[in-house]
User: Fold this.
Amino acid sequence: MNNLAYYLSMFLREYLPCERGASQHTCEAYAYTFQLLLCFAAQLSKTQPSKLTLEYLDVSLIIAFLNHLEKKRRNSSRTRNARLAAIKAFFRFLEYRIPSCLDQARRIRVIPMKKVDEKLVNYLTRQEMQALLNAPDLRTYSGIRDRAMLYLTYAAGLRVSELVGLRLDQLTLNSVPVIHVYGKGRRERVIPLWRETAAALRAWIKVRSKTTMVLEVFLNSQDNPMTRSGFEYILSKHVEVAKIKQSSLAKKRVSPHILRHTCAMHTLQATHDIRKVSLWLGHADIKSTEVYLRADPSEKLEALIAGNPLSLRRGKFKAPDKLLAMLKSKS
Assistant:
């Protein structure tokens, strides 16, 4: 029997961050997956999670866990697939370290991902985005910070992890303002800033606390680095204010990632070049950017206008004889 706790600790603390270079967010997401899995397994086996063995995590248990996520926790298919991906990654890690679990790992790795609906991305119109940017009160310290965060997230198409992890040494606010972003998959990109975005950042840097030794650009009320949940709260607060001016926002769920989608859609509508959108967002594969083409009607309208519809031959409609119709219905 192999010690599950030992190998799981090695996977989360050494393999993911050191060997694979996974981000802190990825490590936390994987750790939460195994927290759910081990609690589920311990409940079934009526034992403590620390006493579980590696052999107990067989295919039947993993499938039961995935069903539990969907039926009991009401998780979506995407969440189910993300949890399964973390479990498969762990067993790939084990294949090279425990030869006796090769068959067990092979069986788990062939558990299929569930197909998900490819829905259109949600995004804000220019009027809705402008109402959101105007929501913070610029007469306050927090209002200056909040507008800088909202403007930068939208204009640069940042992921929330990229926003809260942005450091002062990644900003260049001279005559050609740019930010240096360390994105998903450890990919770097340099993004030029609009004049308005740079102005909002300069205003925040001017009032930002000079006493703190924190290197992150955006701070919370305790002068600690802004967190993901902190930005989500700030965004939801300003969305409520923006709804007063732009009532259409009431029908939309606005999350931090919606601002990234909004940046992508507005960039696509302005440039009509999906390659530029992909570079701006830092996508590893342009296939990830194609989702915005499906949501943009202007691209399809151009194809409609460019094509010449075939002509249809005009015909004459002749009403059926009522007597014959009655006779046919009785036959």
